[in-house]
Design brief:
Length: 369
């Protein structure tokens, strides 16, 4: 069965037919064959993150990406600790909300949505406030598509001896991240983003020595990162509660296809090329990107509502949907924008096909004026 449209969104994404086919069987969660698949993908994720088995371990968490973020924040920061949340978009703000709801002691450092996180400002904050123990930042802020300077911020966090929690939801697997070399303590992503699986669980690569300190810290029973890890280790691949068995099989297939594509570097190149084609096509059609090129991640692009044609998002969306593409509304409160994603099983020829429809749209909209 073919898809009615391609998803040009921040996730879930279009997946391959073979990833979807991997979900056609029902599996037993405690059977050793199933558990050995869980163990295998835990190991493969360590490789995707360039980490050693000796120093890092993978923990899965049922639910969407936010469940992984909430599990990590809620399990890692002790009651006498203090979290610094760095914010330049909706996902940074969501981490702040989680800290509020879970009553985790925290402070925030905010930047404009079109400004990358400034590592010097982070350092100033860490020096000023010695009670901060942990720092949380989003790598690619999917709100706008801005790519935050992970290396520079990690350097500052480590130089000032703090624990780092990185939401790399929309970047992990789509851009090389040397997790161990950068000394990231906890990095979070989910099954349905750049690995190109289907929604159903999130995963956290954790520094073993830091995770070992988290026993009994969790503010939730089901979102207890340490407890989930302990069960997975003790019972080699068992999840504490019902695991998304079909999603795990799809994910196994997705990781195989990531390797077949040539790994993270090759996928990054494909996404970059996709993104370049979209921006060129949109520019030719008279649209303007919200961010300057150098701040832009290769995953999703925000565009301003155009002024050269009569425009409503609804109309544009419906037109593109009938042409076989689904795009995404904006997530900025002060400015009218929409987003076009280019991750998932989408390729240069799809992007070029999109561009011909864009030109047709603009042509017809002019005519209507
Ligand atoms: C997708 C995403 C999440 C998680 O969103 P869910 O809807 O819970 O899957 C978190 N952070 C970022 C940066 C994301 O792109």
């Amino acid at each position: 069965m073919s898809n009615p449209y391609l998803l040009l969104t921040p996730g879930p994404l279009s997946t391959t037919a073979t990833v979807k086919e991997a979900m056609q069987t029902d599996w037993c969660t405690w059977d050793h064959e199933y558990k050995s698949i869980v163990e295998q993908i835990r190991q493969q994720l360590l490789e995707v993150g360039c980490t050693s088995k000796e120093h890092y371990t993978t923990v899965f968490m049922q639910g969407s990406g936010t469940f992984g973020v909430e599990a990590t924040l809620g399990s890692v920061i002790p009651n006498d600790g203090k979290l610094l949340v760095i914010i330049n978009g909706a996902y940074g703000r969501r981490m702040e909300e989680i800290a509020k709801v879970l009553r985790i002691p925290h402070v925030s450092l905010s930047f404009e949505a079109n400004a990358p996180v400034d590592s010097r400002a982070v350092e100033k904050k860490l020096i000023e406030d010695a009670s901060i123990t942990h720092v949380a930042m989003v790598h690619c802020e999917t709100t706008t598509g801005i790519l935050n300077p992970l290396e520079a911020v990690m350097e500052v966090i480590k130089r000032n001896d703090r624990i780092a929690i990185i939401d790399a939801m929309s970047s992990f697997g789509g851009i090389p991240i040397a997790v161990e070399e950068l000394e990231i303590d906890f990095i979070i992503s989910s099954a349905n983003k750049c690995i190109q699986g289907v929604p159903g669980f999130s995963f956290v690569l954790c520094r073993r020595d830091e995770l070992m300190k988290c026993k009994g810290r969790a503010r939730s029973l089901s979102l207890d990162l340490y407890d989930q890890w302990e069960t997975m280790e003790r019972d080699s691949g068992k999840w504490r509660f019902t695991s998304p068995t079909h999603v795990v099989h799809a994910f196994k297939q997705a990781l195989l296809e990531l390797a077949e594509e040539g790994g993270v570097a090759a996928r990054h190149e494909r996404y970059r090329n996709n993104q370049r084609i979209v921006v060129e096509g949109m520019t030719e059609a008279g649209f303007t990107a919200y961010l300057p090129r150098e701040l832009q991640s290769p995953f999703i692009t925000t565009f301003l509502y155009p002024k050269h044609i009569s425009f409503t998002f609804e109309h544009f969306y419906t037109f593109l949907k009938s042409a076989g593409f689904v795009i995404y509304p904006g997530k900025l409160t002060d400015i009218d924008v929409f987003r076009i994603g280019n991750m998932g099983d989408v390729h240069a020829e799809d992007m070029e096909r999109l561009n011909t429809h864009l030109l047709r749209y603009v042509g017809e909209s002019h005519y209507e004026n």
